[in-house]
């Protein structure tokens, strides 16, 4: 069931991205899509950054 729901959300997101690319154009839509994915992953706290310095620098190498 979880796989089905996940696939459903993926399909809806992909369809929405195609519609957005058609309306905005790829040169505008792709950077917006990429930036929003990065921002949302950071907001969801992917547990990669363990302290504030890592979060500010955007790297887990510190």
Report on this structure:
One of its GO terms (cellular component) is plasma membrane. This protein has 62 residues and is an all-alpha fold. The protein has one domain. Helices cover 76% and strands 0% of the residues. It contains 3 helices and no strands. The protein has helices spanning 2-24, 26-43, 52-57. The longest helix is centred in the N-terminal third of the chain and has 23 residues, at 2-24. It is flat, with a radius of gyration of 15 Å.
Structure described in brief:
The chain has one domain.
Note the topology.
Layout lengths: L1 H23 L1 H18 L8 H6 L5
Structure keywords:
mainly alpha, transmembrane helix, 3 helices, 62 residues, flat, Sugar_transport, transmembrane, membrane, 76% helix, carbohydrate transmembrane transporter activity
Low-confidence residue ranges: none
Q: Name the overall outline.
A: flat
Please estimate the helix content: over 70%
Write the H/E string, N to C. HHH
Largest sheet: none
Q: If helices are DSSP runs of H or I spanning 4 or more residues, what is the number of helices?
A: 3
The share of residues in extended strands comes to: under 5%
| DSSP strand tally | 0
Count of domains: 1
Indicate the structural class.
Answer: mainly alpha
Rounded to the nearest angstrom, the distance between the terminal CA atoms is 40 Å
Average of pLDDT: 79
**Rg for CA atoms:** 15 Å
